[in-house]
Design goal:
Non-ribosomal Peptide Synthetase Peptidyl Carrier Protein, Chain A; 78 residues; globular; single chain
Length: 78
């Protein structure tokens, strides 16, 4: 399983979509229905799964799936 597939699998646990149905342009709140609590739980699960700590200053600007994966890729997977 690729890192992107793992990432989408985690996203799918917080919304009503299968990993294959999640697009990079999907917005967490508007398209996937994430609450603030969902988003924070999701980020915590990402940090645990990928053994990293995401930059809090950058997290606040994340709106889409691709933005979140790019931050993860930049900080944990590089």
């Amino acid at each position: 399983m690729t890192n992107r597939e793992k990432f989408k699998l985690i996203v799918s646990q917080y919304c009503d979509r299968k990993p294959a149905e999640i697009a990079g342009s999907d917005r967490f709140r508007e398209d996937l229905g994430f609450s603030s609590l969902d988003f924070m739980s999701f980020l915590g699960e990402l940090e645990d799964e990928f053994d990293t700590e995401l930059d809090t200053d950058k997290i606040v600007s994340i709106k889409t799936i691709e933005e979140a994966f790019s931050l993860l890729d930049e900080q944990a997977l590089a």
